[in-house]
Structure formats: C-alpha cells, structure tokens
Amino acid sequence: MSGPDGVASPEFVDGGYRTDRRRPSIFARTLPGLRFYLFAGPIVWLAGHRAGRGDYDDAAWSRSSLAILRALEGAGVRIEITGVDHFRTLDGPCVFVGNHMSTLETFVLPTVIRSWRPVTFIVKKELTDYPIFGPVMRSRDPVVVGRTNPRDDLKAVLEGGTERLRAGISIVVFPQTTRTPVFDPAAFNSIGIKLAKRAQVPVVPIALKTDAWGNGRLFKDIGRIDPAKTVHIEFGAPLRVQGTGAAEHQRVVDFIEERLRVWGGTVANGATATGG
C-alpha cells in the first residue's frame, strides 16, 4: 500500500498487521535463508546505489523496507505488528525506545513508522561506513554515535536528537550496546528517556522479537532465517517523562520484558516463556 506521498506500508487493520496464512513455495520451505537473501540482496544493492547518487528519499526508503518485509514473508516468516495506534495518533514526534535483537528491525521498522511520521535512527558510526547499506543510512540523516566515549555519545544524542525532534522527525533508539537475542535490563540504558525529557516529547516503547533473522557468525547481518520463529513487533502506550525519568525507564523495561515472556523470548535471568 502506498500513501499520497509515495510512502509504502503494509495493510494495517485495527492498529495491527499479520502475515496471511499462504503456504510458502517448496524452495522457501526447503531453503528459506537462500530464498530470502536472493531476494533481499538486490533490494539492498539498489537502495545503496540510489542513495549513493543522492536519489533516495523517504518514499524510496519505505518501499525498500516493505520489500524486505515481503521477502521475509516469501521465505516463510510470519510477522505480527501491533499497537501502531499508540503513535499514529500523536500530535508530534516521539522517541521510540526498543530492544535490539537482530538486523530485521533496522530494515522493517521504516515501513511501519514512516507510514505516519518522519523518522530516523540513532546508529553506530560503523553502520554508516558499511558498503552498500552505509549510503542508505547516511541518507536518512541519523544521529551517529561512536560507542567509544559515552560522554561524547550522550552529547551527540541529546543535541542531534533534539534538533531532529524539533524539526518533526521522530527518533528510534536501541539503548543496548549490541544486537542480542537475550534481553538484559541491566544493559538497557536510559539514553532514550534522557533525549525525550530534553526535547519534551513522549516516549513510545517497542518490544521486539525478531530472532527469525539470526545474527551471523562471520557477518553479523547475514544470519540464519528461521520461519519457525514468528516476528513480533509491539508498540506500547506513549509515556511523558516526569522528574528524573527513572519511573518511565522502568516502565519501558517492564513492557519489553513482559512481551518477550509472552512470546517465548529470553531475558538475562534465564526465564523463557512458551511463545512463538
């Protein structure tokens, strides 16, 4: 589905989206990873080529993101997205704060969020230096952090993030230091809360279970595609930061942990629920 400005998105019904039950092809059932990367590779290459020429806007970004979502579904991965009404009806920008499980959310969230509001990410500098994908990320004017000096990173996030939020651009923050299938509340810092407080915008929690696209051993972005694992993306109710923000930070952590337990995700204390 495309909006009037060419921005593409899945078909949302009642604030959510679910992959239909069509049976994947024999090829996808037998070799889901090969099927996915054969389709995803050209999508990413074309996006990088266009971005390198300066010909890659929000509409193109959303179309690439939707194409990746469809490639995952074509490989047999089921995707469930809920809670979009929590941010769709906001009057202005917000800070999205979520756990970071795999490469999948970086590729799929643009088509979900950009359907209703401009958005960019806080990213590590090394991501903007990647071949092919680097130009795509740079074209989205992200807030870039080095992950070597916490003081410098905090300054970059507070200043750069506030600048973009005041321009009406929402920010996606993954407070963990790295992608991991295990959610560790102790490693989940409050930088997103600090940014929202400074910019005086709401925080929208995102709980993510995206390990259907695994982290690779040699190349972290190229991992196993496992259709037996459902992708879950859920947006929580917006929070207004009060006082130090400690209570709001804890509410974000509790929301993510509770959803992961329902879905069968793993948290740092080793507890695992029985979800898909």
Question: Would you kindly provide a written description of the structure presented here, covering whatever features stand out?
Answer:
This protein has 276 residues and is of the alpha/beta class. The longest helix has 21 residues, at 32-52. It contains 10 helices and 10 strands. The chain has helices at residues 26-30, 32-52, 58-74, 85-88, 104-113, 125-128, 133-139, 150-166, 191-199, 246-263, and strands at residues 16-18, 79-82, 95-98, 119-124, 143-145, 170-173, 182-183, 203-209, 231-235, 266-267.
Kindly provide the name of the CATH class of the domain at 77-267: Alpha Beta
**Strand portion, in percent?**
5-15%
Determine the CATH topology of the domain at 77-267: Glycerol-3-phosphate (1)-acyltransferase
- Head-to-tail CA distance between termini: 27 Å
Biggest β-sheet: strands ordered side by side in the sheet: 1-2-9-8-3-6-4-5
For the record, the CATH architecture of the domain at 77-267 stands as 3-Layer(aba) Sandwich
| Number of separate helices | 10
Overall shape: globular
How much helicity do the residues have? Answer: 40-55%
Q: CATH superfamily of the domain at 77-267, called what?
A: Glycerol-3-phosphate (1)-acyltransferase
Mean pLDDT: 91
Helix- and strand-based class? Answer: alpha/beta
Query: Residue ranges: pLDDT <50 for 5 or more in a row?
Result: 272-276
Q: How many strands in all?
A: 10
Specify Rg, calculated over alpha carbons.
18 Å
Largest sheet: 8 strands, mixed
Output the helix-strand order. Answer: EHHHEHEHEHHEHEEHEEHE
